[in-house]
Write a structure and sequence with these properties.
This protein is of the alpha/beta class. The chain has 2 domains: about 5-165, no CATH class; about 175-305, no CATH class. About 35% of the residues lie in helices and about 10% in strands. The protein is built from 12 helices and 8 strands. It has helices at about 5, 30, 45-55, 65-75, 120-130, 155-165, 175-190, 200-205, 220-230, 240-255, 270-280, 295; strands at about 30-35, 40-45, 55, 100-105, 115-120, 140-150, 205, 220. The strands form 2 sheets. Strands 1-2-6-4-5-3 form a 6-stranded mixed beta sheet. β1 (about 30-35) and β2 (about 40-45) form a beta hairpin. It is elongated and about 65 Å long.
């Protein structure tokens, strides 16, 4: 990938296929301090830009509240603006390299962000809290190492995951991290599969627009979809995300071509649900159906040919 192209100013917004939000674009070239390599750059952004323009990479480990508290106390005890900005050079409090944040820049990304924190989500959370509490200025500058990887959630997901492990000193992922990564790979694969989801913006709701995390049947909230696989991880742990999606397509056929009366009891509400599912060819969340609801079909995700609702 051409490094100059990776830093090209993006002058048009992308619409997210997930929740209808528009990507927050940033002039990366104007933030560049030094080009370390072809796809590796030192950038300087403000605290506000870090929070608003850089999201946490979805496969990051969960935020540890104790770690955030420890880092926050460390910052406050040293009155430490210099912890973030190595360009400051006033010698009052030299930065620790541990406070430099690593981000991926994906100019092809859709959704709210094109920058993703792959190392430093706890530091980002400290900065977010300090901003909320008015303890730092939002113009405070922060140094980040930026890696340019297009389609970091798609075709180059594996490359980004390998970078994540490398930056984290090649440590093995914890057992608790593996389920999260697999579940998110499965959900992203489902959302991007036109055979399973004909219109992702209409059918897959998002937490931003639906804080309760539940969508009106037969639509489904992304959080609901994640929970289906997370709560049944023992059924998918020996499968790849590609195998899960292939098996789900077999299950889909068993639901799609059933007669209405074999899916729902005949009520006005169920008639509306069936019509919406049929019109949008979306069958993953018929939760009012005794035999076709997610709690039933997930039981057969590893053996789809045995699913006979």
């Amino acid at each position: 990938m051409n490094h100059q192209n990776a830093h090209k100013y993006i002058d048009s917004d992308d619409e997210s296929p997930d929740n209808g939000t528009r990507a927050l674009n940033i002039n990366i070239k104007s933030k560049t301090v030094y080009n370390i390599g072809r796809n590796k750059t030192l950038i300087k952004i403000t605290a506000r830009e870090l929070i608003q323009y850089a999201g946490n990479w979805i496969y990051n480990r969960e935020i540890d509240k104790d770690k955030v508290k420890e880092l926050k106390e460390q910052y406050l005890s040293n009155n430490g603006n210099d912890y973030f900005n190595i360009m400051d050079n006033d010698n009052d409090a030299d930065i620790s390299p541990a406070w430099i944040i690593s981000v991926v820049y994906d100019k092809e990304a859709t959704g709210a962000h094109k920058l993703f924190v792959i190392d430093g989500q706890h530091r980002r959370e400290v900065i977010r809290q300090l901003l909320e509490e008015g303890k730092i200025q939002d113009t405070m500058e922060i140094i980040c190492i930026m890696y340019s990887i297009d389609n970091c959630y798609g075709e180059n997901k594996k490359m980004t995951l390998e970078l994540f492990k490398k930056i984290n000193n090649n440590l093995q992922l914890k057992d608790s991290d593996i389920p999260k990564i697999l579940v998110n790979q499965i959900v992203e694969g489902i959302v991007d599969d036109n055979e399973l989801v004909s219109d992702k913006r209409k059918l897959i709701r998002n937490d931003v627009n639906n804080p309760c995390g539940v969508a009106q049947e037969p639509r489904i909230n992304k959080r609901e979809l994640i929970d289906i696989f997370k709560n049944n991880y023992h059924l998918i742990e020996n499968l790849s995300s590609e195998e899960v999606i292939a098996n789900l397509k077999i299950i889909l056929l068993r639901i799609r071509y059933k007669d209405f009366e074999n899916i729902y009891t005949n009520t006005p509400d169920n008639q509306k649900r069936y019509k919406m599912a049929r019109d949008n060819d979306f069958w993953l969340n018929l939760k009012s159906s005794p035999n076709c609801n997610p709690s039933e079909w997930i039981k057969y995700i590893a053996k789809p040919n045995e699913f006979h609702p």
